[in-house]
Amino acid sequence: TGDALYLKERTFVFNSQIQNLVGVLGDRFSYVDPALSVTPKNNQILDGLHPTNDGYEQIGVAFGNFINAND
Description:
58% of the residues lie in helices and 0% in strands. By secondary structure, it is an all-alpha fold.
């Protein structure tokens, strides 16, 4: 459908900009992939895309761990 195609195109544009940011910011750029923090089998993803409240908690823990490790 049109919405799915639009989302796919915007996702591609967004992801390509991440690479540009890394190139410009170098060591000052950090990225934590929230998808690695949540799993559907633990009921942390509601519909295959959006995290549940527990999923958001796990993403927050992942970001917190990253910040503390790089402090």
